[in-house]
Amino acid sequence: MHEPKARRRPRAEIEGIKARTRANDFVLSSHADLEAADEEIGIEEIREAILNADMLEHYEDTGRGESCLLLGFVNDRPIHVICGWRHESVLVITVYIPKPPKFINPWTRRR
User: Fold this and answer.
1) Exposed (0-12), middle (13-18) or buried (19+): which is 50, by Cβ within 10 Å?
2) Element holding 57 (H helix, E strand)
3) For the chain, how many structural domains are there in total?
4) Which of 10, 36, 87, 107 has the fewest CB atoms within 10 Å, counting from its CB?
């Protein structure tokens, strides 16, 4: 029995994101660039986080395209990356270290 289409799509999406990232076909938004600098996250760390990431959340198109929240670890440091698409390239919308008070742990957002 096959999973419903809606459940297959995020898995296919993360594999596409990883493939594009492996090919260095990703760009940072100006917001992601600022956040990365504030959090002291380098471009190679962003790349590595995406390549070993799991998708935590998938966001439907709200007017700017679909996006997703990824969690990857680099040297045991959790990194959240919110990605979307800009044409055929991966667009890193923002990147940050998940920490209290917004997050209980890297996987769980405080409600």
Assistant:
1) buried
2) strand 54-59
3) 1
4) 87
C-alpha separations of 58 from 23, 24, 37, 101 in Å: 23, 22, 25, 22
Nearest-angstrom CA–CA distance, 72 and 1: 30
Domain enclosing residue 29, as ranges = 5-109
- The CATH code of the domain that includes 65 is 3.30.2310.40
Rounded Cα distance between 30 and 104, Å, is: 28
Angle between helices 43-51 and 30-39 (to 10 degrees): 100
pTM of the complete model: 0.86
Q: Provide the residue type at 72 as one letter.
A: G
Residue-by-residue DSSP string for 71-99 = EEEETTEEEEEEEEEETTEEEEEEEE---
